[in-house]
Amino acid sequence: MNRAMDIEEYIEQHIDAEPDYLACIDHEAHVMLLNPRMSAGHVQGRLLSMLAHMIRPRNILEIGTFVGYSALCMAEALPPDGRLHTIEIDDELEDRIRENLAMSELGKKIVLHIGDALDVIPQIDGRFDLVYIDADKRDYVAYYDAVFDKLNPGAFVLVDNTLWGGKIVQALERGDRQTAEIQHFNEMIAADNRVEKVILPVRDGLTIIRKL
Ligand SMILES: C[S@@+](CC[C@H](N)C(=O)[O-])C[C@H]1O[C@@H](n2cnc3c(N)ncnc32)[C@H](O)[C@@H]1O
Asked: Which helix (H) or strand (E) holds 101?
């Protein structure tokens, strides 16, 4: 076992357990789907829940649902009248996502949209206190631009995979398109004086952005 795995296991043993339905969703994803690591999983899921509790959002937008794991984690922090909108482009996942969301009462607070986020975002009314960007890395800049005017002042944007497994610093010359687009996104955020920002080296990198 390598050191990173030791640390992940140690963390799992010393933080809150994931609720049973989330463990079940994660297990099913590992058994049935090709890229189960796309699901947030225990550690990132608890982190998203904790950050959402700190932010105390009423309205959340998630871009990239996959099996619904992270949506259910963030929904833990919603007030009774709160809503989480989540967008997934892969319509083959729709039945699985709906079944997974129905495994918890929290699913009633979650609105699933099937379609390309760039088409769906302009159709969602209202403003958001928290946005989680976790879809196609090549479109991170476009997602950010599409949501920016829908953010309340003081709202947070969480962006996953912004260190892209370390590729972001290893690639002295621009590498593949996804790496190049994440580099471009990170440079754009660094220069954006409308927001405060910090990058946590958790898993694949998590950027936390706060609209001023
Ligand atoms: C990393 S997974 C999301 C994982 C999920 N947020 C979690 O943590 O459990 C990325 C998802 O984004 C979806 N996706 C990719 N491009 C998209 C787009 N343009 N609009 C909506 N969803 C998209 C993919 O089909 C995939 O299911």
From this structure: helix 94-101
